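To whoever is on call:

I kicked off a structure prediction for a single chain this morning and the downstream step that reads the tokens threw a length-mismatch warning. I double-checked the sequence; it's 239 residues and nothing unusual in it as far as I can see. Pasting both halves so you can look.
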Amino acid sequence: MKISVVIPVYNERATLLQVIERVLAAPYDLELLCVDDGSSDGSREVLAELGQRFSQVRAFTQPQNMGKGAALRRGIQEATGDFVIVQDADLEYDPADYGALLDPLIQGKADVVYGSRFLGGRPHRVLYFWHSIGNRVLTLISNCLTDINLTDMETCYKAFRREVIQSIKLEEDRFGFEPEITVKVAKRRLRIYEVGISYWGRTYEEGKKIGWKDGFRALWCLLKYSVTEKSVRATRGPS
């Protein structure tokens, strides 16, 4: 069993080495698909060095800053593992949670697994109240439009059977990836699981990038793909 971990990178030199070391510490046969999205802080050079140092690291570069969604699309296209996990390049999400994410996939019970920051008793750093409200409102709207009962649509941690995620046409270039993939997964009637994860959120001073404008874009994406995406039946894995 091989796991493809897709890591979009934009100006994350301060945390990049530590994140990759944590991912590599996970007890799986891994490939790390790191896509630099036009970084200007030396992240690209760090990635090139890490690619030489670790055989599991495959580094790719975007011609310019195109956005998280575009970087994920590139990495997902290059994936060769049985399962694909999305991993941010900061320290907000802990690769120690991979076991929980992968378990429903390995057991053949799920096609897609979301790691929820609002489920279970895992530790969470206490940060922005209005961010949590915004996340919950977007998740509620997403659930109303898709008729699924997620608790954390905007989570970074999402895991897929590779053939499932590679069969879905992804269009969003920036932070619209989360609502887009949620609608498209729901439209395919795929088996979706949620598991509780830990979360160590960053402040804006520490490098957090997402803002209120991205919340409005997420809402637009939910509405857009709910209307334009047709319901289809995707091939499921063994039950």
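Update from on-call: the warning came from a stale cache, not from the record. Cleared it. Sanity check on the structure: Helices lie at 13-24, 43-53, 68-78, 98-106, 129-146, 162-167, 177-187, 212-228.
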